[in-house]
């Protein structure tokens, strides 16, 4: 059990950053499988499921092939998670009854980091797929810096924000569902109104449950975002001109079921990611690192 400490802005940023880095390290291989499953087109079913994708990835690219794009995520997930969690707390502090609006604002704030982060991550994750092996015979190896330079050279800063609309469509509803649901689940673990402390395992469970539900709800938007942000296309792969065009073509050529590709993988990624995030956030790792204690916080 722990005492939930009131956080300063700096501790919120530290907690969010640490939580994001720990979570990403734990679940990144599943995220890679999600991306590759979502990018599969009809008639090109190279992976049967998540385990099949991971096994083929290890066979063709080695163990570290499962961590393609992890460096980008580990670099940018700190500001991304810090912005998301801190923004939600900031907007929520204005009025407790505005939980959904606070989540919406948090989702809008985080896309400034999320969009370029996901853009680069998807290129790196998809570059070593079996699709590339079948077409070219060799594993395509690129770096985040090479992709960034090419995008800036050819499309400018806006190139890094390809799929921004789809990212907003995913992250705003996710935050609207996740934060209020987590808050209410977390509150159920309180011993009493006089003793609001909650066991760490309850924070973890609440984060996992709320995260997995929110992830599945917005999975169709995540599929659209992944398709739009995937720059390398095979000879027979479809290209898309925006969100509406992408939705229309997926529906016509692959059917409604295509919008749930990778949904189980995404739930498996998001559940522990946000479970870990909430434990770090509520335990108060940032407070510990900055030397805060219950005494000097309350007496400040």
Automatic annotation (TrEMBL):
Q: Which Gene3D superfamilies match?
A: Mitochondrial carrier domain
SUPFAM superfamilies per the record? Mitochondrial carrier
**Mind listing the GO biological process terms from this record?**
malate-aspartate shuttle
Record's Gene Ontology CC terms?
A: mitochondrial inner membrane
Catalysed reaction(s) here are:
L-glutamate(in) + H(+)(in) = L-glutamate(out) + H(+)(out)
Each Solcar repeat, start to end? 7-94, 95-188, 198-287
Q: Per UniProt, what is the membrane topology? A: Multi-pass membrane protein
**MF (Gene Ontology):** L-aspartate transmembrane transporter activity; L-glutamate transmembrane transporter activity; symporter activity
**Alphabetically ordered keywords of this record:** Membrane, Mitochondrion, Mitochondrion inner membrane, Phosphoprotein, Repeat, Symport, Transmembrane, Transmembrane helix, Transport
Q: Indicate the family of this protein.
A: Belongs to the mitochondrial carrier (TC 2.A.29) family.
- What function does the entry list? Responsible for the transport of glutamate from the cytosol into the mitochondrial matrix with the concomitant import of a proton (symport system).
Q: What is this protein called?
A: Mitochondrial glutamate carrier 2
Name of the gene encoding the protein in the UniProt record: LOC115045813
């Amino acid at each position: 059990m722990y005492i939930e400490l009131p956080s300063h802005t700096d501790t919120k940023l530290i907690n969010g950053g640490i939580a994001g880095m720990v979570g990403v390290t734990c679940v990144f291989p599943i995220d890679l499988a999600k991306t590759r499953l979502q990018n599969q087109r009809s008639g090109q079913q190279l992976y049967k499921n998540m385990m099949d994708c991971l096994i083929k990835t290890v066979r063709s690219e080695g163990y570290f092939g499962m961590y393609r794009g992890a460096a980008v995520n580990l670099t940018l997930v700190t500001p991304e998670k810090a912005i998301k969690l801190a923004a939600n707390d900031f907007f929520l502090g204005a009025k407790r009854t505005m939980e959904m609006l606070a989540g919406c604002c948090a989702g809008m704030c985080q896309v400034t980091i999320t969009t370029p982060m996901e853009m680069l991550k998807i290129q790196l994750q998809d570059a070593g797929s079996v699709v590339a092996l079948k077409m070219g015979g060799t594993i395509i190896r690129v770096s985040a810096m090479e992709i960034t330079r090419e995008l800036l050279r050819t499309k400018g800063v806006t190139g890094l924000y390809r799929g921004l609309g789809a990212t907003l469509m995913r992250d705003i509803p996710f935050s609207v569902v996740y934060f209020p649901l987590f808050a209410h689940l977390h509150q159920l673990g309180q011993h009493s109104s006089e003793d609001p402390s909650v066991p760490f395992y309850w924070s973890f469970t609440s984060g996992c449950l709320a995260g997995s539900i929110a992830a599945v709800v917005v999975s169709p938007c995540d599929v659209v975002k992944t398709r739009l942000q995937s720059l390398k296309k095979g000879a027979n792969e479809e290209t898309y001109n925006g969100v509406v065009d992408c939705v229309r073509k997926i529906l016509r050529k692959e059917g409604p079921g295509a919008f749930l590709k990778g949904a189980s993988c995404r739930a498996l990624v998001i559940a522990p990611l946000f479970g870990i995030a909430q434990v770090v956030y509520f335990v108060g790792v940032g407070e510990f690192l900055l030397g805060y204690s219950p005494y000097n916080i309350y007496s400040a």
